[in-house]
Amino acid sequence: MRAYASFLSRFENPNNAPLCVIAGGEGVNYDTEIDTVIIQENLSDYVLKTGHVSEAEKYRLYAHAELFVSLSLFEGFGIPFVEAMSFGIPVLGSNRSCLPEIIGEAGDIVDPEDTEAVANKLFWFCTDSKLHNQYACQGMERAQKFTWERMAQETQAVYEEFDS
Asked: What is the DSSP letter of 91?
């Protein structure tokens, strides 16, 4: 949220900047500091928290998104990144866990704890249309490599290797 506040400050009129949509419920690991920073940085008019979303709502959010950002410190696989890329949405993820491998050259990564680096990347994605379009196209191509069918085939191959 602090990076988003810094990002907004780079616009002459912050109302011209993309809205930050935080989708998902406030689960077990929800960080209440997010709410505190939204208030401290006067971001209430620029941040929409949806709470839990249905699959249909999630896909509507993807369909209208300009950029998908998730700066997790740990990620099990990164399915939301693959989903976003399949919609042609450029992605920005953290340089931790499996995300560099999932994103590859089809998006960008950043240190999630470096506020100014995150703000710079956000601004870069949202003001450089050539870069935006490049990552959108590369993301759609990359997402095709992550299919359930491929995962099933590769899992079966591992089982068959151990069965021999």
From this structure: E
Which residue type does 108 have?
D
Instruction: Name which of 84, 50, 82 is nearest 68 in CA terms.
Output: 84
- Stated pTM of the model: 0.87
Can you tell me which residue has the tokens 């099933």? 152
Which CATH number goes with the domain that contains 19?
3.40.50.2000
Minimal CA–CA distance to 124: which of 110, 113, 112?
A: 110
Number of domains in the chain: 1
**What is the C-alpha to C-alpha distance for residues 110 and 120, in angstroms, rounded to an integer?**
10
The answer to whether residues 42 and 68 touch, using CB atoms and an 8 Å cutoff, is no
Structure tokens at 118: 């995150």
Residue 47's domain spans which residues?
2-163
Phi-psi region for residue 19, left (φ > 0), alpha (ψ -120 to 50) or beta? beta
Picking from 28, 21, 105, 15, the residue whose alpha carbon sits closest to that of residue 60 is: 21
Q: Are 8 and 17 in contact (CB under 8 A)?
A: yes
The pLDDT tens digits of the residues spanning 95-140 come to 998 999 999 999 999 999 999 999 999 999 999 999 999 999 999 9
